[in-house]
Write a structure and sequence with these properties.
572 residues; Immunoglobulin-like; ten-stranded antiparallel sheet; 5 helices; elongated
Length: 572
């Protein structure tokens, strides 16, 4: 093939590529084919979805387009299903209304078919739609709002927002929102679009789906998950109901790198555990050259894997020296004893990105790619255990073919399912140490006279203070034990000798006076003395309020009275 022919072929191929790439942002990214349906869903209070692209939506729910120069041009067009008219308003970055109108079939700016909207503005490329053009008077984020009909929502079936240079060169990566709301119309169609998330540390990740079948759904991205309470372990868990907040910009294309530059990735060094004090507390310290998240596991249980006794610490890592405290208690809330061997491992991560999806009924696999800066494909994490039937993966999943994190229709229905990943994930070198805890104890004991107790290496029967132990050989912390023993007296009980008496003569048995004592006779009586008239064995237990007891018993015998005239002999 000659050079002239090669050049011609290359020019033709470039022309085909150039024309195919000459489109703005909107339907083309969300609907790869005309059979795919994905509409913008501007609304205020339609169900529990977050407000979007309407006057009530607030800053986080705006549909934004970034203008970097007043020489740039803004082209746009919208179309609704069934030819319904669309009323829009365009606001400048300072909140001033700069353009408004109602678009209907046949009017400028109204898009009626898929091919037109994907081709782009006809002022730029032939065969496109008749776009409205606005010449910006200031730079910054312009935003669109839609008038919401009485149905409570506006189904924008086709939309295109194109930023072009002064020479009509299209500039992608300018359209974004912090909270998007979309609809696929019937809950049977698959969503095949992609999103590009621009984190606050300027990391761009691309999100796509292996098999995603929502009906209407809301998407946002942030640094912590569903909540932002400061407890990352709880905040990142998926939640029942709508629990979302938008923080990061979510684009339909790779954000324009000129005005949305890339961040950088670095790591951690000098990971260590400072010498613990004798209160059980330990400080894990390290240096970081980038802001990110530290995820640590304190292995109290030496068994492989994460056990119930182990402790997870998740927190924000800052540039420079960082320090995180472990309070010396295990995962069950129990105090870890002096000298217990501990292993600490974990990782530090930057570019932490959470993706809370609301009402995303069915998903088989989320795919994440690191777009810029360059680096390995991030692993995906999730914790759906707050939702009945939900699973978790805290070790990370990476599958470029099928994606990671799947859930059923019922788990996604009206719930917020969160996934998260890190652009940089660096394992820290594990560190071993022993718990150092003063184990100085003071114990008080009480026994009754006549009993004994084993204290400080001997059986003790007398009151006193007995000290044992000393400094721990393993840790050097105080392990002294002080035992204070009190010996309480038992009550004196004496019912007297056994007695023989004639029938009819009563006998009073007295267990003696004892302050704050309790009495129990084998007759069931509870007084200090009782009167008996029948033969038998009588027994009493007397107990002091310190719990010391004494007992006694006596035998009482009655003989019949002799009949009259019978000689009676009395022995004095």
């Amino acid at each position: 093939m000659g050079n002239t022919l090669k050049t011609s072929v290359l020019l033709i191929l470039f022309h085909i590529w150039f024309i195919s790439a000459m489109y703005g942002e909107g339907t083309k990214q969300l609907m790869p084919t005309s059979a795919d349906i994905c509409e913008l869903w501007p609304h205020c209070f339609f169900g529990p979805y977050p407000a979007f692209a309407a006057s009530c939506a607030g800053e986080d729910g705006r549909l934004n387009v970034r203008i970097a120069s007043t020489s740039e041009k803004l082209y746009f067009g919208f179309g609704a299903e069934w030819g319904i008219s669309v009323t829009y308003s365009l606001f400048a970055p300072n909140g001033t209304l700069v353009l408004t109108g109602t678009l209907g079939t046949g009017s400028q700016g109204y898009v009626t078919n898929y091919n037109q909207v994907c081709t782009g503005p006809s002022a730029i490329v032939a065969g496109g739609y008749n776009a409205i053009m606005y010449q910006p008077l200031m730079t910054g984020d312009y935003y669109f709002e839609f008038a919401i009909p009485s149905t409570g929502k506006m189904n924008v079936h086709f939309f295109d927002i194109t930023v072009a240079s002064s020479t009509n060169a299209i500039i992608d990566g300018r359209v974004w929102s912090k909270n998007w709301v979309f609809a696929t119309m019937d809950g049977q169609r698959r969503f095949k679009g992609k999103f590009y998330i621009y984190s606050d540390d300027h990391i761009v990740t691309e999100v796509s789906f292996k098999d995603f079948i929502p009906d209407a759904f809301a998407i946002c991205s942030n640094a912590t998950g569903c909540y932002n309470t400061g407890n990352l372990q709880l905040d990142r868990k998926s939640q029942t109901g709508l629990v979302q907040y938008g923080q990061y910009k979510v684009f339909l294309n790779n954000p324009d790198p000129v005005i949305f530059p890339s961040g950088y990735l670095s790591g951690v060094s000098n990971f260590a555990v400072s010498t613990p004090s004798c209160d059980g507390v330990a400080f894990i310290t390290f240096n970081s050259s980038v802001a990110g998240v530290i995820d640590l596991v304190i292995h109290v249980n030496p068994a492989v894997g994460i056990q119930p006794e182990d402790v997870t610490i998740v927190g924000q890592a800052n540039v420079g020296l960082n320090s995180f405290m472990w309070n010396g208690f295990n995962g069950l809330g129990q105090e870890v004893g002096n000298g217990t061997p501990i292993r600490v491992e974990g990782f530090i991560a930057a570019g932490l990105t959470n993706l809370p999806l609301y009402d995303a009924e069915y998903c088989v696999g989320i795919k994440v790619n690191l777009i810029r800066p360059s680096g390995p494909t991030p692993s995906i994490y999730w914790d759906d255990t707050n939702i009945s039937g939900g699973t978790s993966n805290l070790n990370g999943c990476s599958n470029s073919t099928s994606g990671c994190h799947s859930w059923s229709y019922f788990i996604g229905e009206t719930n917020t399912i969160n996934s998260w990943w890190y652009a940089l994930k660096q394992d820290v070198v594990s560190v071993n140490f022993r718990v150092r805890r003063n184990n100085a104890q003071t114990n008080a004991y009480a026994i009754c006279s006549g009993d004994s107790i084993y204290l400080a290496g001997h059986w003790r029967k007398t009151s006193g203070t007995f000290i044992s132990g000393g400094l721990s050989v393993l840790t050097g912390c105080d392990s002294t034990r002080t035992d204070i023993l009190t010996v309480n007296s038992r009550p004196l009980v004496n019912l007297g000798p056994d007695m023989i008496m004639c029938d009819g003569e009563p006998l009073t048995l007295n267990a003696g006076a004892c302050l704050d004592c309790s009495y129990i006779w084998n007759t069931g009586q509870t007084t200090s003395s009782i009167t008996v008239t029948m033969s038998g064995v009588y027994h009493v237990v007397v107990t002091t309020n310190q719990g010391c007891s004494s007992s006694d018993e006596m035998v009482f015998t009655h003989f019949p009275v002799p009949p009259p005239g019978v000689l009676q002999i009395k022995h004095n």
